[in-house]
């Protein structure tokens, strides 16, 4: 009977923890995806003729924290916004890149500023145009240890073309 009870408790506790941890993991994944798409879209709506672009992007980083409400973006994640241009028609280049404040060590999968980006195969930046890319990197840590999931880094990226004019530099 003790063996049966031990097996039942193990199965029941795993089932109980799974019904909590799996939805939490899925919810965080959806929030990261939505926040990435929202950041790319909102940065693409910035009109550089209307003032300080960098301050507006900083405000959007605060909004990204709100989109990930319930999760600490400053210590467990980062938002990376990049502007990718093709000024001569020869090759794309990351013309600027801004990272949200925080202590989490995040690395962009697109590449660093002033280098050729690693883009999806079907994404083309035509001569004279640019796109805005928003990446979100977030460390998921399960509440109940690694019974269901191990800690892992979630990653999402989105691309959008600027609405008003190319955002190839960040004027003050």
What is the tally of beta strands?
4
Number of helices: 3
Largest sheet: 4 strands, antiparallel
Low-confidence stretches: none
The first-to-last residue Cα distance is: 73 Å
Residue-averaged pLDDT: 88
Strand content: 15-25%
> Which bin fits the share of residues in helices?
25-40%
Using only CA atoms, what is the Rg? 20 Å
The string of secondary-structure elements, in order, is HHHEEEE
Structure description:
- The structure is a single chain.
- The protein is 36% helix and 21% strand.
- It is of the alpha+beta class.
- The N and C termini lie far apart (73 Å).
- The chain has helices spanning 2-44, 53-67, 73-76; strands at 77-85, 93-99, 130-140, 152-160.
Observed structural traits:
single chain; 172 residues; alpha+beta; 4-stranded antiparallel beta sheet; 3 helices; 4 strands; 36% helix; 21% strand
Helix/strand layout:
Elements: H1 2-44, H2 53-67, H3 73-76, E1 77-85, E2 93-99, E3 130-140, E4 152-160
Antiparallel strand pairs: 1-2, 1-3, 3-4
């Amino acid at each position: 009977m003790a063996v049966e009870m031990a097996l039942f408790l193990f199965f029941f506790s795993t089932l109980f923890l799974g019904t909590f941890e799996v939805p939490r993991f899925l919810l965080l994944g959806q929030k990261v995806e939505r926040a990435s798409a929202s950041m790319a879209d909102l940065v693409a709506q910035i009109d550089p003729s209307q003032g300080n672009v960098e301050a507006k992007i900083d405000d959007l980083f605060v909004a990204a924290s709100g989109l990930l409400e319930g999760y600490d973006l400053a210590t467990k994640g980062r938002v990376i916004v990049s502007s990718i241009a093709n000024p001569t028609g020869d090759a794309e280049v990351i013309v600027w890149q801004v990272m949200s404040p925080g202590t989490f060590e995040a690395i962009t999968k697109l590449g660093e500023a002033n280098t050729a980006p690693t883009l999806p195969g079907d994404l083309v930046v035509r001569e004279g145009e640019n796109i805005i890319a928003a990446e979100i990197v977030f460390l998921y840590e399960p509440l109940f240890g690694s019974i269901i999931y191990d800690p892992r880094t979630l990653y999402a990226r989105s691309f959008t073309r600027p609405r008003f004019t190319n955002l190839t530099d960040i004027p003050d």
